[in-house]
Amino acid sequence: MKTQTISHFRDIHVHAATVQQWSQDYSQLSAGSSESSLMQLTTERCHIFLEQINQRVVQNGVAPRERMCFAVPINVPGSIRMQGRDVDDSSLFFLNGGEEFMFHMPTGMQLLSVTFERELFEQALAQTAEAKEIAALLRQPVIRVSPKGFAETRHRLLSMFAQALTSEAPAGAWEHALEQAMLDELLQLMTDPACDKQQRSQSSTRSFIVEKCHRLLAAQMTSAPSVSDMCEQLQVSRRTLQNSFHAVAETTPLNYLRSVRLNGVRRTLMSTRAAQLSIGDAAAQWGFYHLSHFAAEYFELFAELPSHTTRAAIAGCAPA
């Protein structure tokens, strides 16, 4: 049965927790109040959502299991990185169910995500003459396609999604028609003769460095590794580290790592009650031990003091 929601948020962590079927964390990297929108629709065998966030955000998590997950960038106002690869406005994103991901989303970007049940997608793929070619394309997370074909596909997908959100027609055959139409659009896009079948795009060393630092930080959150520690663990120079973060996230390594930790504290506060965990203890879990400095940095990033953050606002959201 079809379910649909249109939501607006003033916190990216509530936004992330509201996306159905996805297990993920968002971390705000640019400073200021957060405003975002999320429209999503779930049918029997498909989940679709369209999101837009007014801040630069890094998203990481695990794609829904037993699903085939596609994402279509609607507008690209800045640099994007997906799974360590540089992305342009003619790139289709793909994830296998259960696959870990990291995605750097620039300020103000819109993203359309379409997720199919694996069985449904594989049945449709088997009926396609170019099944082997498409399967080869799906071995990578970023698929460069024809810019003209992508623009047309993007327009049709958005139109179908908008119509589905506002439709009052009964569920059933209508849902299946929507699922099939979206499947057909994506399959046809990947079989377009103008699609680059060689896909020569390679991983970006700078993106790899940033993602590795992000994961190292999550694994050592209480000890809060310094920039020097990161350089030593990755065996790269400080200049290489600086250049990598500037290219990928448009900030410094220090600001990035501090922002990820501050987001960790915010998720912790929003997933616990004040009686369960004090602000000081939540901050210490992420390596902040000087409360006045912590409060100032928290306010600078989120435009809100930690004491004003709504506690237990995210049900079942574990800090990670």
Look up the CATH topology of the largest domain: Jelly Rolls
**Top CATH class of the largest domain:** Mainly Beta
Q: Output the structural class.
A: alpha+beta
**Order of strands in the sheet with the most strands?**
1-3-4-11-6-9-12
Rg (C-alpha, Å):
20 Å
| SSE run | EHEEEEEEEEEEHHEHHHHHHHH
The low-confidence parts are 316-320
The gross shape turns out to be globular
Largest sheet: 7 strands, antiparallel
Mean pLDDT: 89
Secondary structure layout plus pairing:
Blueprint: E1 3-9, H1 12-18, E2 23-28, E3 36-42, E4 46-53, E5 57-62, E6 67-75, E7 80-82, E8 85-87, E9 91-96, E10 100-105, E11 110-117, H2 118-126, H3 131-137, E12 142-144, H4 147-166, H5 173-191, H6 205-219, H7 227-234, H8 238-249, H9 253-270, H10 279-285, H11 291-302
Antiparallel strand pairs: 1-3, 2-5, 3-4, 4-11, 5-10, 6-9, 6-11, 7-8, 7-10, 9-12
Helix pairs in contact: 4-5, 6-8, 6-9, 9-10
Explain this structure.
The protein is built from eleven helices and twelve strands. The longest helix has 20 residues. The C terminus is likely disordered. The strands form two sheets. Strands 1-3-4-11-6-9-12 form a seven-stranded antiparallel sheet, with helices on both faces. A five-stranded antiparallel sheet has the order 2-5-10-7-8. The chain folds into two domains: 189 residues, Jelly Rolls (Sandwich); 104 residues, Homeodomain-like (Arc Repressor Mutant, subunit A). Helices cover 42% and strands 22% of the residues. The radius of gyration is 20 Å and the shape is globular. With 320 residues, it is of the alpha+beta class. A hairpin with a 3-residue loop joins strand 3 and strand 4. Helix 4 packs antiparallel against helix 5, helix 6 packs across helix 9 and helix 9 packs across helix 10.
